Amino acid sequence: MIEVQELTKRYGKQLAVDHISFGASGGSVVGLLGPNGAGKSTTMRMLAGYIPPSSGTAKINGYDVVRQSMLARKSTGYLPENNPLYPHMYVREYLGFMGALHGMNRKKQRIEEVIGLTGLGPESHKKLGQLSKGYRQRAGLAQALLHDPPVLILDEPTSGLDPNQLSGMRQLIRDLGREKTVILSTHIMQEVELLCKDVLIINKGKIVADDELKALTAVRSLEEVFRELTR
């Protein structure tokens, strides 16, 4: 579902992502870890078609993110780190707008489905600007799920959630990972241990670990592995 070969991003002289290669198949949740500034969000933005790579290739569901950009984007649901929303739109209005951008039929039915999936129901009558940070995260995830893409790219999806919301969001991501390919960025090691089968660790733009969670943690904890590889 995701194929990356020698993917690179330069900003002037700065090499933000340095010739990385990896793959992820359907029915899995992959944890993307790294310290701040390591290149995680830049990698996710390139996969989502938000920014172009400087070189290398990435394919989503078989579609090249540069040469077949629209097809790749149709196959991708993206929740960015800062979750940009339209604060003056009501929740259903926003989801309806996003559904129209995707050219969806029967979008009203799907809107109600994703509102239920993400637990937005109690706050769905409000404008997005009136929502708490946790519910704004849910709204962002709802739009990522709206067109039922096979690939989800989630950058810090549990940021701002209280313990009850966190439990529900983790279960939703776990359920989604049974059918979809999910790339999940987080700083919370426990989250990776609970949700992810495979782990990528990136440091200074390079992938320093790409393995199954159980193999990485056979001898040491994930936190110890992370600190050793990124210090």
Compute the number of structural domains.
Answer: 2
Order of helices and strands: EEEHEEHEHHHEHEHEEHH
Shape: globular
Kindly report the CATH topology of the largest domain. Answer: Rossmann fold
Number of helix segments? 9
Protein name: ABC-2 type transport system ATP-binding protein
Organism: Anseongella ginsenosidimutans
Family: Belongs to the ABC transporter superfamily.
GO molecular function, one term: ATP binding
What does this structure look like?
There is one protein chain. This protein has about 230 residues and is an alpha/beta fold. It folds into two domains: about 1-75 and about 150-230, Rossmann fold (3-Layer(aba) Sandwich); about 85-150, no CATH class. The protein has helices spanning about 40-45, 70-75, 90-100, 105-120, 135-145, 165-175, 190-195, 215, 220-230, and strands at about 1-10, 15-25, 30-35, 55-60, 65, 75-80, 150-155, 180-185, 200-205, 205-210. Strands 6-7-8-3-9-10 form a six-stranded mixed sheet, sandwiched between helices. Strands 2-1-4-5 form a four-stranded antiparallel sheet. A hairpin with a 2-residue loop joins strand 1 and strand 2. It is globular and about 45 Å long. The relative contact order is 0.18. The mean pLDDT is about 95. InterPro entries: AAA+_ATPase, ABC_transporter-like_ATP-bd, P-loop_NTPase. It holds the Pfam family ABC_tran. This is ABC-2 type transport system ATP-binding protein.
